[in-house]
Amino acid sequence: MALRPLSAGENLCGLVLREDIAQGHKFALVDHARANTVIKYGQLIGHATQAIRAGEHVHVHNLVSALAGELIYTAGRPGQAAALDSASPVATWRGYPRADGRAGTRNEVWILPTVGCVGITAEQIAREAQARHAGVIDGIHAFTHPHGCSQLGDDLAGTRAVLAGLAVSPNAAGVLLLGLGCESNQLGRLVEAVPEHARAKLRVLSSQSAGDEIAEAGRLVDELVEQAATSRREDLPASALTVGLKCGGSDGFSGLTANPLLGRFSETLSAAGGRVILTEIPEIFGAEQALLDRSASREVFDRAAGLVNRFKRYYLDQGLPVSENPSPGNLAGGITTLEEKSLGAVQKAGSAPLADVLDYGNQAARAGISLLEAPGNDAVSSTALAASGATIVLFTTGRGTPLGFPVPTIKIASNRALAEAKPHWIDFDASQALEDGPATADAAFMARVLAVASGEATAAERSGQRAIAVWKRGVTL
Length: 477
What we know:
Blueprint: E1 11-12, E2 15-16, E3 26-27, E4 37-40, E5 43-48, E6 57-58, E7 63-64, E8 93-97, E9 103-104, E10 108-113, H1 119-132, E11 139-142, H2 153-167, E12 172-179, H3 187-193, E13 202-206, H4 213-228, E14 234-236, E15 242-247, H5 254-271, E16 275-278, H6 288-292, H7 298-316, H8 328-332, H9 338-345, E17 354-358, E18 368-372, H10 378-387, E19 392-397, E20 409-413, H11 416-421, E21 428-429, H12 432-436, H13 438-453, H14 459-462
Parallel strand pairs: 10-11, 10-12, 12-13, 15-16, 15-19, 16-18, 17-18, 19-20, 20-21
Antiparallel strand pairs: 1-2, 3-6, 4-5, 5-7, 8-9, 8-14
Helix pairs in contact: 1-4, 2-3, 2-10, 5-9
């Protein structure tokens, strides 16, 4: 099946198009009166704002979201999520076992600044150390951000939580926490936020207390590299993988090709005992009930429902509607309402059980799907996935983006035009599922994920695209 624009007058199984339809956009299959519900994926995606005839373009000029505010969710049968078939074994991969029982897909040293004031210093330390130790380990990286001072309360606690989560990542064999000295995010409090069992891989330096902070930091990084260099890849089962799910720059095909591909992968990995993390809470508004119905227990259901409503309240308290999520790129790609985007986005989790709900910065620990508190913003949510233990991020896109994150980020194109135009951004073309069939595409995708987990570089890694972003929620002093 070719993905292409359609022209007015084309006859599609007896339906004659009345207008040109851009690639990824929708047309009506039946007539709609004004205020009628419009259905896609078998679910409501909004209401018609005017009469729509069969064969006409359906988009922002004649369709509007039906989302409003918080809801009272009805529990189905918690604990009755469909059992997933684990009869087909997943091939092993080669990773780095860690002392806490988890495993890394990379063996790196990370430099995490407590505050933006020492961000450039951290980058200098990483560049010089990488030059000294090139090829000894998988890499030395500094992850800078502008926060850590002029913050209060929960906002500061969130910054500390996500940095502590990154510090315990299985992909970081060693971590230098680099402080300034006078910032709100004090080094001592940050170290306290790191579980005690993980503190052996930490080194800590306050720049104001050091003599030559570059030289002293360099010596600490040298120690960490020497320690990390003793790690070796070993054959590991699929259950040792923790994968984060993300979609960004979506289009009308994201919910038809790329996200269902991830859904089938998530089912397979969950059935094998692996961990899968789903986030972007605003991008499940309108599709949350189907996810809630797969809760492993009533406790998980209540926590997940509470998280969704808490996020809606976060919008409403700012005087903003809960439905204004699709970006200009999403709209240009054919996505009209948040319900439509959400119904496509939640397919990344397939039908795997919802096993847990995680606060921002907390670690995924259960097999199956964990729902993580974080917004939809690409950099913020992908950073949150890495901070919650994901050692790979699977990132679907219909529009494309070059950006990568602390852990290997596999970019999956929803359409062939993007994959062919941006091979230096894209790692996998999900549109092949339409031509070769889902089974063939699934096998090829599983092989690619396991190859990346075992050390194959992603497009973002090859181009040096590695960044973090912290979720800033409070006032700035």
